[in-house]
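Handoff note, outgoing to incoming analyst
You'll be picking up this chain. Sequence as last confirmed:
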Amino acid sequence: MSEGMQNNDPRDPLMIAEEWMKAGRDVAIATVVETWGSAPRPVGSHLVIDTDGNFEGSVSGGCVEGAVVAEAADVLAEGKPRMLEFGVADETAWEVGLSCGGRIRVYVERLG
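Most recent structure output, in case you need it:
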């Protein structure tokens, strides 16, 4: 798998995170904790990210994954979780592509 790229592995992102951690990789998990409007992924959806920027899963169907991966790098470096919010009312709405009117809150934390 190329660095920073997602593959088409249909397995649960949590299983993948467990494999990555067993291999000695530092891993963060992003979880959709709240949605409004036409958010493309339901509450409980996961994205797992390692320190090399590899990721699996989805929190928005591609709308905000890049921004979440960047925030996860900071979470892994600092060890402090953070809550992210994206939506049409947010100044980053057009940048991350949630122009459909949905909003999501995503909690990012380090695993292990």
